[in-house]
Each structure stands twice: as structure tokens, then as C-alpha cells.
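Reopening this one. Same input as before:
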Amino acid sequence: MDYAVWGSLQDRVYKSEIKDVEELRQRIQEEWDGLDQRLIDSAVSEWRKRLQACVAANQEHFEHKL
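Same output, byte for byte:
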């Protein structure tokens, strides 16, 4: 999952204290269901760019080229 999606999800999940693992699971599911589809679509688009940059870099670092 792209860092943008995880960052957004993480902010929403941890907006308040979590009591136990079950509450964490529930909150992750609720917040995932509430994510804006445009955020997910954008992350998928960026992932494709990252994969293409990785292949083009031929085993070299590529993050600086994004």
C-alpha cells in the first residue's frame, strides 16, 4: 500500500486512544471503508510510476527521480 494511503489511514485510526486489539481491528476496518476512493486511485497511479522508475533504474536508486 502506498505511503499516502497508509499515512491517511494511520491518522484516522489513531485519532484517539485504542483500548485493545479488537478495537484496533474494528477502527481500521471502519476507517478503510470511509477512505475517499480518489485517494486510493491516486496511490495506485503513483505505484505504477514507482514500478516503472524501479525498472528503468536498473538496480540503482530511483526515489530522487520521482
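So the earlier flakiness isn't reproducible anymore. For the record, The chain has one domain: 19-65.
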